[in-house]
Amino acid sequence: MATDNVLSGRTVTTGLGNVGDMAIDALTGGIGGASSYGLQKALKSTAIKAVAKLGTHNDGSDIVVLGTFPEYLREGNELGMTYFQVSPKVYAWAESKGIGWASNQQFLDNQMAAGKSFAVALGFKPPEIAGTMKTAGRGLTQELAYLKQKGYVVRSGLWVSMR
User: Fold this and answer.
1) pLDDT for 123-161, tens place per residue?
2) Going by C-beta distance under 8 Å and a sequence separation of 6 or more, which residues neighbour residue 137?
3) Rounded to an integer, what distance in angstroms lies between the CA atom of residue 116 and that of residue 99?
4) Are strands 117-121 and 63-67 parallel, antiparallel or unpaired?
5) Are 135 and 94 in contact (CB under 8 A)?
6) Directed axis angle between helix 100-113 and helix 37-54, to 10°?
7) Is 132 exposed, middle or buried (0-12, 13-18, 19+ CB in 10 A)?
8) Which pTM was predicted?
9) Burial (0-12, 13-18, 19+ Cβ within 10 Å), 126
10) Cβ of 104: how many Cβ atoms within 10 Å?
């Protein structure tokens, strides 16, 4: 019996799927052995990491672009900056499992660990913190607050680590 893997979009054989399939099954209660808390927690962590990896684009850049939709996508593609974007199907699944923001945080953590700086895309407007916070949507507001919590500050138009 074949099913679609929600994370990768590939068809896999039920029971022989990859870790992403196991994570989906565990989070949806699909495999009996995953009902224990420890395994569910481990598989949830795996699903978060898988969504973060799946949504990472232009990973070779030294700068990550955040922003409002669709501006950050346009700037990420045009300027070759790293950005986070998953398909609507994956986004809906992650949100339904309560791991949407956790996946976004994992993406941010991965980029911070790589030593990247962050730019804010607001239709090619200068990313001044005051202007950014006034025009930011919920997702961008969360991202900027998270960067600030992690010790990032605005320097020369980029969010950079001060740690």
Assistant:
1) 544 444 444 444 456 788 899 999 999 999 888 777 788
2) 68, 69
3) 24
4) parallel
5) no
6) 60
7) buried
8) 0.72
9) exposed
10) 22
